[in-house]
Specification:
This protein is an alpha/beta fold and about 350 residues long. It has 12 helices and 8 strands.
């Protein structure tokens, strides 16, 4: 399958760019904001101010490009690694921090923001995203549902069941497969015997494209095509973004135990933020002064979000069961009472 690319590793166009100059700058700003938040979140976790956190450094283009292709009224169904996609789609930074602190305030997303909570269980989001997309079609809604999965998750049964369900029901769902080379500690070549994940879409009659996942221009262009096709044709669409996870699987992981650091250094040269900045500089659309000014703006936004999150009181133990059901069943109420009595004893 052809791997679509518009910008090479050195930041040079290899084809006519499908984005305007304003869009290129918008895309870079979104990439840089996502990268900066990821770096700050990693620091906060190391300071004991976040729980276990899954960094996404190196995968920003796949996440940001998908988020930018959506419009108001569309839905996003993210997994645990899509923090970059979620904040680009509109999730407030303070809410995001509180989510990774396991505070109930972080589970309550703003009214009107059509994004589901981050899925932790691998691939369970695919059938649910397909159901959400099918429900929209059934009710005459015009929304598209974007969801994500890693290459490892495509080996789960839920992935295949969800694709089959979406295909049969004509669900307008776009699935972004971030093929980052590793299913935790298992390399892609050891957990599938095909060259492209996108080939699996053929078995379900689903259109699919393969894209250089470190090229934001290519990802955004393909994501636009996928969203437009899903909306017009009422069909699912699969995108395989071939990228690389530069950091650990989560902050509890040590990738040096299963991969060579020389491999990581090799992929550093192709990472998406550096690549797009080189393109903008070559086009005269960006320079160090603009970079410094924008980073100052982003850092101020993140500082304000950290301060807001820090102002939230630590939750009482019983709150852990208060967000499960709209009306507590008897067994949950007993647990709630026990936690509440123990906390206030």
């Amino acid at each position: 399958m052809e791997v679509l690319q518009y910008v090479d590793e050195g930041g040079k166009p290899v084809a006519e760019l499908p984005l305007s100059e304003d869009e290129l700058v918008q895309g870079y700003r979104a990439l840089l904001r996502a990268r900066r938040f990821d770096e700050r979140a990693l620091t906060l976790q190391r300071q004991g101010r976040l729980g276990v956190y899954p960094p996404y450094r190196g995968q920003e283009a796949a996440q940001v490009g998908m988020a930018l292709a959506l419009r108001d009224g569309d839905w996003m169904v993210p997994t645990y690694r899509e923090t970059g996609a979620a904040i680009t789609f509109g999730l407030p930074l303070a809410t995001t921090l509180l989510f990774w602190r396991a505070y109930p305030q972080g589970w309550r997303f703003p009214e009107g923001l059509r994004i589901l909570p981050f899925y932790i269980a691998i691939a369970t989001q695919i059938p649910q995203a397909a159901g959400l997309a099918a429900a929209g079609r059934y009710h005459g809604e015009d929304w598209v549902v974007a969801t994500f999965i890693g290459d490892g998750g495509t080996s789960e049964g839920d992935f295949h069941e969800g694709l089959n369900m979406a295909s049969v029901m004509g669900a307008p769902m776009v699935l972004m497969v971030q093929n980052n080379g590793w299913a935790i500690s298992v390399p892609t070549w050891r957990q599938m015997n095909i060259p492209y994940v996108a080939l699996r879409a053929q078995g379900y009659g689903i259109p699919a494209r393969v894209v250089d996942g470190n090229d934001l221009v290519a990802v955004w262009a393909v994501a636009r095509e996928a969203v437009a096709t899903a909306r017009k044709e009422r069909t699912p669409f699969l995108i395989e973004a071939r990228t690389y996870r530069l950091g650990p699987h989560t902050t509890s992981d040590d990738p040096r135990r299963y991969r060579d650091e020389a491999e990581v250094r090799e992929h550093e040269a192709a990472e998406p933020v550096r690549r797009l900045r080189l393109l903008l500089e070559n086009l005269g659309l960006w320079d160090q002064a603009r970079e410094d000014a924008y980073l100052q703006e982003v850092d101020a936004e993140i500082d304000a979000a950290v301060a807001e999150a820090d102002s939230v009181s630590e939750p009482a133990p019983e709150t852990i069961v208060e967000e499960v059901f709209a009306v507590m069943p008897p067994e949950l109420r007993r647990a709630w009472n026990a936690l509440r009595e123990g906390h206030h004893a």
